[in-house]
Amino acid sequence: MNYNDIGIESSLYWKRIRKLFIIGVLGGCMTFVGDWLLGYGVCDESLSGLEKKLSQYLVLPDVKLFWSAFLGLIGISLEGLCYFGIYRLIANKSMKHAHIFRSGVFGYMLFAACGVHVPCLSTVFFYKHMMLENPEAAYDLTLKFGAYFLLPATILFLIFLFVMSTAMISAVAKGLTPYPKWCWIFSMPVGMAATMLLKFTGNHAVANGLTAAWISIGNIWMFGGLLLTMNKAKGGQKHEI
Question: Which residues fall within 8 angstroms of residue 61, CB to CB, at 6 or more apart?
């Protein structure tokens, strides 16, 4: 078989895959803390739309914005590297799905941290300080700032996230990994969607903090679930290396 291993053994090495998943959980937890620092708080109910959402950031000290950006930068990078454990599992049975998944991973690594997370914090920082200097122009300038420097990378990030998630769900659900088919539920979209249901609970600090961390919770759900069910996957293999 023509196998492009990109530095990963051509045979399953479960100890390394387990290590990658553990690091992935840690990276997800690190990103979660960064997202929580940003999202924990309440919005101004007298406002509406995006301006209402931005209002909760006006009281955040700059040091929290820094740590939110920094923790996410490191945590998201770790998550991206650990996706190659999933890639290796898919490559064991379907190179087609593995290559599609890997394409999504590369896009995630390119845009998630430096293209979306850090610029998101930069936009919040910009809005907060523009409100202090020029409240009348702050909102419109922030929209323009976000459209120029945040929106393009966000669109690309979401495309690659969709590609990566779809390839993983398809591969697991079709039995193209060592995991049972039902383990497709341990995918990022499931954890992300469950978290976003909290939006319906209202404008509460805890709900806002958790929904701000919807992607990091999706990662924790995915890596954690794959770790907990790894013995089932290993049990389905004739030989363990």
Answer: none
Burial 216-231 (b: 16+ CB within 10 A, else e): bbbbbbbbbbbbebbe
- What's phi and psi for 237, nearest 5 deg? -95, 140
The residue assigned the tokens 């960064």 is: 34
Distance CA 29, CA 24 (A): 9
pLDDT tens-digit readout, 133-180 = 999 999 999 999 999 999 999 999 999 999 999 999 999 999 999 999
Domain ranges of the chain: 14-235
The CA-CA-CA angle for residues 92, 98, 103, to 5°, reads: 155
Q: What angle do CA 106, 161, 17 make, to 5 degrees?
A: 60
Token readout for 71 is: 């923790």
CA dihedral 76, 3, 184, 197 (to 10 degrees): 30
CB 177 within 8 A of CB 171: yes
